Structures are given as C-alpha cells and as structure tokens.
Amino acid sequence: MTDEDRIAHLQGEPAHDLDEADVAALDDLRDLLRDPAVWAAPPGDLEDRVVAAIAAEANARPSAAPPAHRRTRRRAWVAAAVAAAAVVLVAVLAAGVLSGGGAGGRTRLQVALAAVGPAGPSGSGTLTRTDAGWRIELTLSDLPRLDNGAYYQAWLKNDAGLLVPVGTFNQGGRVTLWAGVSPVDFPTVTVTVEAADGNQASSGQRVLAGTVKPPS
Amino acid sequence: MDAETVDGFRAGDPAAVRAVVRAYGGLVFAVAVRVLGDRSLAEDAAQQAFVQAWKAASHFDPSRELGPWLATIARRAAIDLQRREATRARLARAEEPTVVVQSVPESAERAYDVWAVREAVDGLPAEEREVVRLQHLEGLTQVEVAERLGIPLGTVKSRAHRAHARLAGRLGHLRDTGG
C-alpha cells in the first residue's frame, strides 16, 4: 500500500494494494467530501450578528461578562453599549419630502428609522435646511446611555465614502444635530459608538444607518 | 490566533470578535449544518456558538488551540437548537409529552470529522479546492471539471492529485481512527 494508492482511491480511481480497513477509511473520507456541510459558506452577516448578539448579552447582563482587567472591562462595556443598539438596524429614511412650502421656503426631509433585529433602537426625525445649516432633529428610542468617555456620533456620508461628523450625544430621546453639508449630497446617515480616545476617525461600530432619497 | 485577539474576544471587543468569527466562522457553520441539516437553523446555531464561546471564554486555556474548543461548543449549540426545535414541533402538534430519549443525533457524531475535513479543505489553494469541490460535491469527472473551468485536462489532473495528496496527509488521523 502506497500513498499513491490512497490518493488514487480517494479520487475514485483504481487502486490495487489497499487493505479493507484502508478502503473503508478512504471511502469514509470521500463521503465527507461529498457532504454539503463541508462546503457550506457561512452567512455574510455572521460577523455583524455575533458582534450584535454579544453586545446585547453584555448589555443585558453586564455581570455575566467574563472577568478581565479594567481596560478590557471598559471596552466590553462600550461594546455592551452597542448592545441594544447594535442589533442590526436598517434605517429606512423614508421618502424625502421637499416641502417647498413653510416659513422661508425651507427644505425639509422626513426621516424614519426602524430596527430590523428582534430588539434595538428605532426612531424618526426631520432634516431641515436653515440659513445656518441643516438642523437634524431625531427622536430615538431604546438607545442606551453611554458615558465615561463613550458616546454616539452621527455622520453624513456621500457616495464616495467621505464622512462628515454632524454631532455627538449620549443616549436616545430627542436629539438635535447640525450639519454643514447637505443630506442631498451626503445622503447616507450613520450613527456610531465612539470612545474619547483622541482618534477622530469613525470607530466603524455603526448602530444606525440609512440612505436619504434625493428630493424630487 | 494570537493571544491578544483571544484576550480581546474574551472582553467582547468587536474587532477581536470579528477576527475570531472571520477565522472560524466557516468551521463553526460547517459543524452546525452537519448537525442540523438546515441552513437557516445552522445560522442561528453558529451565532449562538460564538456567543456561548464568549461567555465561556474565561475558562478557555489560551495555550490550547481555539478551533477544537469552538468545535465542541458549536456541536453542542447545534444539538441544543435541534432539541429545542423538536420540542417546539412536538408542542405545536399538541402531542402528549411522553418519555423523551435525549440521544445525540447521528449527524452530531460526525461533526468533528466534518470540522477536520472542512479545515483541511480550507487549507487548500483556491484552485485546488475548486477542483476537489467539483469532483466530490458536484460529482463531476475530471473531463467535466476541465470543461467547467475551461482549463486543460492535464491541469485538472495535476491539481486534483496535489489536492488529494494534501488531504490524505492532513486527514491521516481520520484514517487512523477509521473515520
């Protein structure tokens, strides 16, 4: 019995010097190679789902978090804060309505935010163009409070991926933000969880996201 | 998997969690599919497995390999889910809860073998892996593989030979135990 014999049998080709046990074992391996489970690709959003689920668990039962030193405990807590928020949301920015009417002929976009997961934040809001800029008024529910150097940050993003920060806040409820760029040109709205660590870039820990339809 | 990532996973650090899922998601999912035979349920089981691993991470010995530990958790998570689904189905049928024999499903016994084969297959170069997939999963002959991939038959033969040699070498422990 040689390796060539084994390789041949594994490929379904004739092999001469294999004993019964070898044949049985190699047939077993061939069965496994035919098993769809071996080739099954995991869902593309598995990472997001696991991160969200762990954050939710940590938020729901912070004492259940594994013991760790202080810094990692804080990081876990920050992740926990992503918790209820992090259950993946699809922000449905509803039909942007250009209300040419109203005082001063201001442009107003209506915004609706909805959770797609079993739990998580949701809300609605309005983006209004004023002389000073765009006022973004959101009413958000189930967005847990962040403190001790952790906070939420809202962004507007254009199609090229350029992010413009539009404000920070600590929890849901009524939140007023201001943008110096138009949501018509920067139509994607995101909210991330950030830490006051001197890094001004987005953490990438998005808890809300959606796209504004351009006004017609 | 480096110690820092494992430590971050224990702490629930999202970046570390993502790294672990990226490295082991395919393996965990393979075990779940094998046990449950249902992709949708397997997705839930894989997610549960990683959450349970995070919960138990403080008991994990970082000097050991993470993979086999996750395999055990994945198998258990899938079996638990299967039993819950069975109970739910029974209740939905309003059957009397008679004596329930909690046995390990046959497919679960093979979960470790699936894990090992998946790991070995994932370790193949992509072009060799595709040849093996077409040969075994889709049942194509080498001539058909050559036609499908638009490459010479000789190339298919050489890739197949190299791939099966690697698999035979990496999966020798399955042969030793009779699979």
Strand fraction band of chain A?
Answer: 25-35%
State the helical fraction of chain A. Answer: 25-40%
What sequence of helices (H) and strands (E) makes up the elements of chain A?
Answer: HHHHHEEEEEEEEE
Give the integer mean of the pLDDT values of chain B.
83
Total count of strands of chain A: 9
Short description:
The complex is a heterodimer of chains A (216) and B (179). Chain A is of the alpha+beta class.
Describe this structure as you would to a colleague:
- The complex is a heterodimer of chains A (216) and B (179).
- In chain A, the strands form 2 sheets. Chain A has a 5-stranded antiparallel β-sheet, with no helix packed on it. A 4-stranded antiparallel β-sheet of chain A has the order 6-5-8-9.
- About 16% of the residues of chain A have low confidence.
- Helices cover 27% and strands 29% of the residues of chain A.
- Chain A contains 5 helices and 9 strands, in the order αααααβββββββββ.
- Chain A is an alpha+beta fold and 216 residues long.
- In chain A, helix 4 crosses helix 5.
- By secondary structure, chain B is mostly helical.
- In chain B, 75% of the residues lie in helices and 0% in strands.
- Chain B has 10 helices and no strands.
- In chain B, helix 8 packs across helix 9.
- The longest helix of chain B has 27 residues.
- At the A-B interface, helix 1, helix 2, helix 3, helix 4 and helix 5 of A face helix 1, helix 2, helix 3, helix 6 and helix 7 of B.
